[in-house]
Design goal:
Blueprint: E1 5-10, E2 13-18, H1 29-44, E3 50-55, E4 60-62, H2 67-70, H3 75-93, E5 99-103, E6 106-108, H4 110-117, E7 120-124, E8 128-130, H5 144-152, H6 154-163, E9 167-168, H7 169-175, E10 180-182, H8 187-199, H9 203-216, H10 223-234, H11 238-248
Parallel strand pairs: 2-3, 3-5, 4-6, 5-7, 6-8, 7-10
Antiparallel strand pairs: 1-2, 8-9
This protein binds coenzyme A.
Coenzyme A binds at residues 23-24, 26, 63-68, 106, 108-109, 132-133, 136, 138.
């Protein structure tokens, strides 16, 4: 079904693995489109509660956009490459189910941007993050200039974007770029542990959280007004009925 990615549904979770290990999982146009399609399919699948995005092989999550593909691009082609990629990454950010990047090695350029478009990031201790585009005379094109600022603040983002410095998982954790650091062997265990905590909560409420937090960053959207709507809408859901009934009956809620 796909050429450059693998998908597997396991424990109510769709695992999307970028599978070009000989190219350190570099993102060519086809791979980005396949990721977008796989996310859309998982979002519609009622048996899937959440999504993990990871890379194939021990070395890389994604080592960036595929440099060989765009080496001869014109200005117009460059703009299209950026716009097409941003559209897919936005669909990940706005996915109504939780999406976690399990970062298992290099997350550079488009790889760091892909991880940042996910809702959470768990990294193995061999992961390395960076936006090295300036070394190629480029800037990030998949909203890396925007999401890095959102995640780690302007000063440090400016530094990483302008120097092209690579940082290890420990520093990424200190900066708030990743939520947890594990050994490579524990990466998926920790990722599922977080997802299972989320799955134990009201699914519509989890979607409400994603929508409201994203609203904070959207131009022209009053996030607080958005929250009023989302909060109110929770009252009409089965999840609310179940969550409150479980609390009042002193039992564990069963949302699924
Ligand atoms: N695009 C296309 N191919 C890439 C790639 C990318 N972003 N990153 C790695 N590859 C390819 C290499 O060309 C090489 O292919 P080859 O074996 O056919 O020559 C293969 O992946 C392995 O990479 P290599 O450079 O040999 O591994 P390394 O361990 O010596 O170095 C990196 C690893 C990540 C430091 C290095 O590959 C790198 O700097 N990649 C580019 C990172 C980048 O600039 N990303 C932003 C792009 S906009």
């Amino acid at each position: 079904m796909y050429t450059n990615i693998l998908t597997e549904n396991k424990d109510n979770t769709c695992i999307i693995t970028i599978n070009r290990p000989d190219k350190l999982n570099a993102l060519n146009h086809e791979t980005i489109q396949e990721i977008g399609k796989a996310v859309a399919v998982a979002e519609k699948d009622n048996s899937v509660y959440g999504i993990i995005i990871t890379g194939s092989g021990p070395k890389a999550f994604v080592a960036g956009a595929d440099i060989s593909e765009f080496s001869k691009y014109t200005v117009e082609e460059g703009k299209k490459l950026s716009a097409d990629g941003q559209k897919v990454f936005k669909s990940i950010e706005l996915c109504t189910k939780p999406v976690i990047a399990a970062v298992n090695g290099f997350a550079l350029g488009g790889g760091c941007e892909l991880a940042m478009s996910c809702h959470l990031r768990i990294a193995s201790d061999n992961a390395k993050f960076g936006q090295p585009e300036v070394k190629l005379g480029l800037i990030p094109g998949y909203a890396g200039t925007q999401r890095l600022v959102q995640l780690i603040g302007k000063g440090k983002a400016m530094e990483l974007l302008m120097t092209a410095d690579m940082i290890g998982a420990g520093e990424a954790f200190t900066l708030g770029l990743v939520n947890y650091v594990t050994s490579p062997g524990d990466l998926m265990i920790k990722t599922f542990e977080i997802l299972n905590k989320i799955y134990a909560n009201g699914p519509r409420a989890v979607t409400g959280i994603i929508n409201c937090v994203d609203a904070y960053f959207q131009d022209g959207v009053d996030g607080s007004a958005f929250e009023v709507e989302e909060f109110g809408n929770c009252f009409g859901t089965d999840g609310f009925t179940e969550g409150v009934d479980a609390f009042l009956s002193k039992r564990k809620a069963n949302f699924r």
